[in-house]
Specification:
Blueprint: E1 6-7, E2 11-12, E3 71-74, E4 90-93, E5 136-139, E6 155-160, E7 163-164, E8 196-201, E9 208-211, H1 212-215, E10 228-234, E11 239-244, E12 248-253, E13 256-257, E14 261-262, H2 263-266, E15 276-281, E16 290-297, E17 300-307, E18 312-314, E19 320-321, E20 338-345, E21 357-363, E22 367-372, E23 377-381, E24 402-407, E25 410-416
Antiparallel strand pairs: 1-2, 3-4, 5-6, 6-7, 8-9, 8-25, 10-11, 11-12, 12-13, 12-14, 15-16, 16-17, 17-18, 17-19, 20-21, 21-22, 22-23, 24-25
Length: about 425
């Protein structure tokens, strides 16, 4: 039997039972470097990129600062003409910490022609063009590549008193919403909606982000509009577990999304609504592979052991009533909900420094709390906390719904609107 480590009077999070020693090297937690994300080549978010690991690039002056490889929309024409008529935005790619002044793929306004197209992108097609009363022509006021895609369709203009009237019956792109419709007519349903995945090395200076639908792809990945409640990454064994408010567990094994299952099918007695979850990997203490997971759902905490074979067992004490730690500078865990948890470990400091194990959690009292292995609490307002203070591109405060961490490399992830 190995000893216990106790985190925030909340639960026992050490390795409670002896376990077989799995010495195999697990695959990279994202499973496949060839499909890694647009940010962070060995980030284990499973989204994939070709950038080197390490702190975010700090070149340039904020707000121009960016991370090499990041892609941003751009448009150099009048703001009121962007994505109106024939005009459309383009993109540029971050290089050397800055976005270039060029904008690839954009279409800017031109002089209006009598061609059924809104060339000058003012929202009116062929204004001023002469015609014969009763004549009709097809028209479309959206970007040309969106006509006939999704609900978007062309309309008809009719000549009245020698001038073309308004375009009638056309359906133009609108911002995408989570409704099962391709609102922006780009060929993908509900793609640029919902939550974003924010990523930053713990010692970095800038966050990167992308839509979850871009970060988590695959036949069994969480839907773009899924309401994520909690997430945790088991670095030891290459698992990412994502819990949604409909009771489903979406899980990725060594980079491949497996068929989703009911969360209680993997975690018996887990409540339908959970506030957050964090892990303590077995590898912090020795050669075994797996993790102890702690779920919080006020006022209880639920502990499970999760091994390399995806076998899950409940802890002996189940569930645990959480405590009021306000007298110690901590939160009242019995009454105040934790919005997300992010754990940070330094195995080289285990049994040498209490800060070898740090847990960051945002609570509904508007603060981020840090707890270490010596039972010491620290707290900040969200904006002044270590993951926000002085960080470029930081997530919105008090809105993130889940968090998890990667420990090779050492990175924090937050899921936020």
């Amino acid at each position: 039997m190995r000893g216990f480590i106790v985190f925030p009077c909340l639960v026992i999070v050490g390795c409670a039972t002896s376990r077989p020693e799995y010495h195999a090297n697990p695959e990279e937690p994202d499973g496949d470097a060839s499909v890694d994300a647009p940010f962070d080549s060995s980030s284990h978010d499973g989204s994939g990129d070709s950038q080197p690991d390490g702190p975010a690039i700090e070149a340039g002056q904020w707000p121009g600062i960016c991370v090499d490889g990041d892609v941003e929309e751009c448009y150099t024409g009048p703001a009121t003409t962007k994505d109106v008529g024939a005009c459309k935005h383009g993109t540029h790619v971050c290089s050397d910490g800055k976005y270039p002044p060029t904008c690839d793929g954009q279409i800017l306004p031109t002089d209006e022609q009598c061609n059924g197209i809104d060339d000058n992108c003012d929202g009116t097609v062929d204004e001023g063009c002469a015609c014969s009363n009763g004549d009709t022509v097809p028209c479309y006021g959206g970007p040309p590549n969106t006509e006939g895609v999704g609900p978007c369709k062309g309309g008809t203009q009719t000549c009245v008193n020698g001038l073309w009237g308004a375009c009638q019956g056309a359906v133009l792109p609108i911002p995408e919403t989570c409704n099962g419709i391709d609102d922006d007519c780009n060929g993908s349903i509900d793609d640029k909606t919902g939550l974003r995945l924010f990523s930053m090395p713990f010692d970095g200076q800038a966050w990167s982000s992308q839509f979850l639908s871009d970060a988590w792809k695959g036949a069994n990945a969480p839907p773009a509009c899924a309401n994520v409640m909690a997430a945790v990454q088991l670095t030891d064994i290459g698992r990412l577990l994502v819990f949604t408010d409909d009771g489903m567990l979406y899980w990725r094994k060594n980079g491949v999304w497996m068929a989703p299952i009911f969360a209680t099918g993997r975690f018996p007695s887990l409540p339908a609504t959970i506030d957050s979850v964090y892990q303590v990997p077995y590898s912090v203490f020795g050669p075994n592979l797996g993790a102890t997971l702690t779920f919080s759902a006020v006022p209880y905490a639920y502990l499970y052991d999760y091994d390399i074979n995806d076998s899950v067992t409940k802890a002996d004490d189940f569930p645990v009533i959480m405590t009021d730690d306000t007298s110690k500078g901590g939160p009242n865990q019995k009454d105040v909900r934790a919005r997300w948890s992010v754990e940070r470990f330094d195995p080289s400091q285990y049994q040498q420094s209490a800060d070898a194990l740090l847990l960051y959690r945002e609570y509904d009292d508007g603060k981020v709390y840090q707890f270490n292995a010596a039972f010491e609490w620290k707290s900040w307002s969200v904006a002044q906390s270590p993951l926000w203070q002085g960080k470029a591109n930081a997530p919105p405060t008090a809105k993130c719904v889940a968090g998890f961490a990667d420990h090779d490399p050492d990175k924090a992830y937050l899921i936020c609107p």
